[in-house]
Amino acid sequence: MNQLRFFAIITMLFVLISLPACDKDDSSDDSILGTWEHVESWEGFSMTVTMTFNANHTGTSKLVMVIEGETESETTSFTYSTNGSTLTLTESGEVTVLSFSVSGNTLTITEDGEKIVFTRK
């Protein structure tokens, strides 16, 4: 169980760092507005990341992990800006610059070749 929990924590940290990256198809800030969800699961583990982008350039990120039936969650707040396909997030003074794209109800965030796909809720 400890190894699984360690893996889950490492995965959570990776996702939180990677969340704001993507190639952006729509150059308007409005395309990213709203609530987006990413879900992953495998044997004994599931993870849901929900990100909300508000019109006033603030947002929240909520991570919910279920590990062997135990649920853990964490919610963080951030500010953001977009410029073309670049998304800049600031959380607790830490700035993360990523690429993003929005196509219909899909938000794709990419960092270092890794893509995370969110669906509009």
TrEMBL record:
Residues 34-109 form the Lipocalin-like domain. Keywords: Signal. It holds the Pfam family Lipocalin_4. InterPro entries: Lipocalin-like (IPR024311). The keyword Signal applies. Residues 1-23 form the signal peptide. This is Lipocalin-like domain-containing protein.
